[in-house]
Specification:
Elements lengths: L2 E5 L5 H11 L4 E5 L3 H7 L11 H8 L4 E4 L2 H7 L2 E4 L19 H13 L4 E5 L7 H11 L6 E5 L9 H6 L4 E5 L3 H14 L8 E5 H32 L3 H9 L20 H14 L3 H28 L8 E5 L14 H11 L3 E5 L5 H9 L22 E3 L3 H5 L4 E4 L11 H6 L6 E4 L6 H7 L2 E4 L6 H4 L6
Parallel strand pairs: 1-2, 1-4, 2-3, 4-5, 5-6, 7-8, 9-10, 9-12, 10-11, 12-13, 13-14
Helix pairs in contact: 1-3, 5-6, 9-11, 9-12, 11-12, 12-13
GO molecular function: NAD binding; UDP-glucose 6-dehydrogenase activity
Enzyme class: oxidoreductase
EC number: 1.1.1.22
Length: 480
């Protein structure tokens, strides 16, 4: 029986290995992590991450050919194929701080693999890593090989949170990069055979190592660029009276452009977009490509601008101050159908409002109070380090109250803002909400999920990203 071990039981490792176990019942799959709490959660009825369809997949295979364990070295030693899905946070100090990826955890994993291995291994990069990481890992393994042969493959993930299981079941493509040597090609074929259990062969793309590594960064950079592009247009739409929804619909009808990732919003979030672009910028700078680096920097600048613009719009609309005012925050996750808050725009929006002394009442159907408190008290990039290195008992953030009901969040609020496009927010009883809010009652829709005209009929003053401004907002100019 082929044995697969995945180091790292997070958003990538857990779902990916669960689907491999489901689709390949003849393969034994072990997911290992040093976090006792995380592994205990994977072995319980309350999985550590929320992803539609994940529970069903895990429960079908767990205990049969899918195992979650803290016995890292044991399973690594026994495995034929080792996926490495550890954190690659942005460096916070030293060379490349604020841009370069910190490969500390990757290097530790490579050294541990070298220490415990007793037979030849295929080591697969599953984390998003900077170009040439495979070469560095290869050097560590070969210089500590003790006669064992290692082949390094790059197999980047292209999952979208909220649809990860469907993305795994029916991927646009599976990318496998390896060495152009007989041993490298043999390793590529071995991994290709795993995916071929359910993925059509024409969707399995084989490349060299560097192309595979760069393709992941490029894909995320292109997607983030589209969001920043439409968000830049949303500011112009508000200034001119155009409707960004109509503009993006017209633009998206062009088959060369397409309609996906053209929804204006308060900004992009998630674990990859900003981190991967920063990584790309650093690589460009290291290769003397200053103009290319500056191009990608602008994508992040526009994203930060959009979040700042949203906060400034809220403050200016509410008589230029939110000090002492209750503001309801509906949605904290970076997108619907996930509990993931990594780099969510909600963090910056909430911190911006707290900076003006607002009182926040936050509701999200999938994000815990502990997670929200941790996110609002952590330094930037700390989220991407292993849980045991993050603040264990985050300080309660004054002026923040986390509730489990949208109506409780909005009761007696001066304004409410929607920061995640959860479907339930479209069907709330806004008349009931209006009746229980302070007047004038403001709605700031950062995801364009509500019918602004219907809310205006109820009596709300509504701001929707990229939509024509109503008279009140025009009279309250915003300095972005």
């Amino acid at each position: 029986m082929v044995k697969i071990c995945c180091i790292g039981a997070g958003y990538v490792g857990g779902p990916t290995m669960a689907v491999i176990a489901l689709k390949c019942p003849s393969i034994e799959v072990a997911v290992v992590d040093i976090s006792v709490a995380r592994i205990a959660a994977w072995n319980s009825d309350q999985l550590p991450i929320y992803e539609p369809g994940l529970d069903d997949v895990v429960k079908q295979r767990r205990g049969k050919n899918l195992f979650f364990s803290t016995e890292v070295e044991k399973h690594v030693a026994e495995a034929d194929i080792i996926f490495v899905s550890v954190n690659t946070p942005t460096k916070t100090r030293g060379l490349g701080a604020g841009k370069a990826a910190d490969l500390t955890y990757w290097e530790s994993a490579a050294r541990m693999i070298a220490d415990v291995s007793k037979n030849d291994k295929i080591v697969v990069e599953k984390s998003t890593v900077p170009v040439k990481t495979a070469e560095a890992i290869e050097k560590i393994l070969t210089h500590n090989s003790k006669g064992i042969n290692y082949q390094i493959l790059s197999n980047p993930e292209f999952l979208a949170e909220g649809t990860a299981i469907q993305d795994l079941f029916n991927p646009d493509r599976v990318l496998i990069g390896g060495r152009d040597t007989p041993e490298g090609q043999k390793a590529i074929h071995a991994l290709k055979e795993v995916y071929a259990h359910w993925v059509p062969e024409d969707r399995i793309i084989c490349t060299n190592l560097w192309s595979a590594e760069l393709s992941k960064l490029a894909a995320n950079a292109f997607l983030a660029q589209r969001i920043s592009s439409v968000n830049a247009m949303s500011a112009l739409c508000e200034a001119t009276g155009a409707d960004v929804t109509q503009v993006s619909n017209a633009v998206g009808k062009d088959t060369r452009i397409g309609s996906k990732f053209l929804n204006a919003s308060v900004g992009f979030g998630g674990s990859c977009f900003q981190k991967d672009i920063l990584n790309l910028i650093y690589i460009c700078e290291c290769n003397g490509l200053k103009e290319v680096a500056n191009y990608w920097k602008q994508v992040i600048k526009v994203n930060d601008y959009q979040k700042n613009r949203f906060v400034n719009r809220m403050v200016s609309s509410m008589f230029n101050t939110v000090s002492g005012k209750k503001v309801a925050i509906l949605g904290f996750a970076f997108k619907k159908d996930t509990g993931d808050t990594r780099e969510t725009p909600a963090i910056d929006v909430c911190k911006g409002l707290l900076g003006d002394n607002a009182h926040l009442s936050i509701y999200d159907p999938q994000v815990t109070e502990d997670q929200i408190t941790k996110d609002l008290s952590m330094k930037k990039f700390d989220w991407d380090h292993p849980t045991h290195l993050q603040p264990m008992s985050p300080c309660a953030v004054k002026q923040v109250n986390v509730v489990w009901d949208a109506y409780e969040a909005t009761k007696d609020a001066h304004g409410l803002c929607i920061l995640t496009e959860w479907d339930e927010f479209k069907t709330l009883d806004f008349k009931k909400i209006y009746d229980n809010m302070q007047k004038p009652a403001f709605v700031f829709d950062g995801r364009n999920v509500v019918d602004a005209e219907k809310l205006r009929e109820i009596g709300f003053i509504v701001y929707s990203i990229g939509k024509p401004l109503d008279a009140w907002l025009k009279d309250m100019p915003v300095v972005a």
